[in-house]
Design goal:
single chain, about 100 residues, mainly alpha, 3 helices, about 0% strand
Length: about 100
């Protein structure tokens, strides 16, 4: 089983990667038509909100201990999966 510190570090690294990917997608959105740009901007705003939520979960993981850590990890996994799916979905629209 992954340790708390290893899990937290893995999440932080992934957050940085997703943040960079969202920034890249935002730059690509600048080069599309106005109607499409509005749609992509809304989707990117949702991703940024999910990114903030995931960042908060990492902070909760840092502060959690014992049984509370397991509960926070479980909800963090759900937030993580949602963010991962969202980033992949938006990225696929730019291909």
């Amino acid at each position: 089983m992954e340790t708390k510190d290893a899990y937290r570090q893995r999440l932080k690294t992934q957050l940085k990667e997703w943040s960079a990917q969202i920034d890249l997608l935002a730059a690509k959105a600048e080069n599309v038509g106005a109607d499409v740009k509005i749609k992509y901007t809304r989707e990117l705003d949702k991703l940024r909100a999910k990114l903030r939520e995931a960042t908060e979960k990492v902070k909760e993981l840092e502060e959690a201990s014992g049984d509370a850590w397991g509960e926070v990890k479980e909800t963090a996994d759900k937030v993580w999966d949602d963010l991962k799916t969202g980033v992949a979905s938006v990225a696929s629209k730019f291909k």
